[in-house]
Specification:
alpha/beta, 12 helices, about 15% strand
Length: about 375
Amino acid sequence: MSKINGKTQLSSKRFLPYARGFTPATKRIQLSAIGNDKNLAEFSPGGDSDNFFSPIPQPTDIDDWLAQYCEEGQTYREFCEECPWLSSRKWAYMKQTFKPKGENILEKYPEGKIYLLPLGEFDSDHCVDFDQLREFSQMYLGIDVVSLPGVKLDIKDRSVSWIEDSQPGVPSRAQRSSSRVKKHTLNARFNTKPKHYQICVDEVLLRLKQRIPDDALCMIALTMSDLYGDDRDLFVAGMAAGKHRVAIFSFARYDPTLTFDIGDWYGIQQNLNGMDTEERKKIILQRSCKLLVHEIGHLLGIDHCIFYDCCMNGSGHLQEDFCQPIHLCPVDLHKLQTLVGFDVTERYKKLLEFYQKHDMHSEAEWVKARLEYLSASK
């Protein structure tokens, strides 16, 4: 994934040049990238395609994703050729049943699951419901998603420690070797005024590699603690070790009542400003759900999208991330459907129920219109 810096506001409305060498996709290239399929209507942009799938927006800030990076993109055909989950060879380090003749990831790895691991506290003050994240990601991806018992963080004396405990029923190399509670000090940095800390992702990824369950397709640790990668970072939203199928991501900066200093990693202020609690929870849920499925998408082999305005677009800063849609464009929906084998219409129906249940009105309206289009196309 791209590192996301601490910038939270667009500095200008004027359009800026793309990164050198990048050219936005034409409609012909977009349609070619989708790939042919017997159920083409499910992956068709639609007659007036911009009603559903807009082109990627041109940069308006020097820190925007496509102002910084010249990405080639990944077509549907390239995904099918490159994705290790579709290979007839078993992924290295996998310790579960593998059926090489399976047509998709669920048939090749019938025991496979995606695991979510809470790292630190997820309480009512954080406005993040872990069960809702699990439910949404399972609907969105079409793969079983399981929440693991949380890992405790001990934060005191300018130190952050990972409290290792056994997890009954979820075997892994580390848990089989010992059932004793252990304490591991994580790399972290602290600031006293204002009081704030960040955890470095490197040691967390090492811990995750050691405890990934044997039947895991991947495991993602989620935390409300702020993260960084190296001393130059203001922060990072997270980091993945794709080869080892583990990742760590933070929702610490997804609260709309927070503002951030663009120069100091510890410069964070909260201003509730009369914001309704339910509206705050809804915004955090939408942002968190989008981050989670975007990053799991990468672990499943889907690269950044350059063909449409899409959940799989890269982002150069928080405001750009927040403005991106939660839905997949036809190119990436085709990839995910081929990888998993779900029914596209049924998936949309489940997502519509979730959006309506959680008052995510714009998302619900988009999915409802998309379902009507698919129904009329049959």
